[in-house]
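Hi R.,

Here's the input for the S-adenosylmethionine complex you asked about:
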Amino acid sequence: MGKGHYNKIAGTYDQRWKNYTRRTLHKLMEYLPASLEGKRVLDFGCGTGELIKILLRHKPKLKEVTAYDPAEEMLRQARNKLEKLPERQQEKVVLLNKQEYGTNFDLVVSSSVLHYLPEPAETLLHFNSLLKGGGTLVLLDYTKNSLPVKYFRWLVRWVDPAHHQAFYP
Ligand SMILES: C[S@@+](CC[C@H](N)C(=O)[O-])C[C@H]1O[C@@H](n2cnc3c(N)ncnc32)[C@H](O)[C@@H]1O
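And here is the predicted structure with S-adenosylmethionine in place:
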């Protein structure tokens, strides 16, 4: 469901969700380890690659970003965007449409994805299996207590038919 919806809206996603994306991803950056020097990062549900760009800009010493998204069209947007970056940054990024990202990540991030998952507990275990010992998991999502989800669930579903469930903080 999520994948089909995102394949359809990929071309207009950045424009439509510009403010939301900017606010959420900058908030997410506050929760990352101060240094990512030499570290391997997985961005799960990377969408159009905005977080990849921010990571490369603010954490230039990171080793690599592997970015996975099931929606091919969202990845196409990410690829187009990344092609405009300097080569030394592009070389650090691997974009994947399949869950063939291996393991041993220092950091797994997933932003605004959890609410699409019918089996979030399984995904959390999956994230755990991808991390090195002592690695970091950073999840960002809107919660069940957020105003639109609490009072206007029908509206959330209308704007985003792929929405499955939000969680308590
Ligand atoms: C709201 S967008 C967020 C994109 C990006 N993480 C960001 O914060 O800008 C949600 C993304 O989750 C992806 N997605 C949907 N279902 C997914 C799943 N089961 N596993 C991983 N990603 C999924 C969609 O294709 C879409 O690109």
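One thing worth noting: The CA atoms of residues 16 and 50 lie 14 Å apart.

Cheers,
M.
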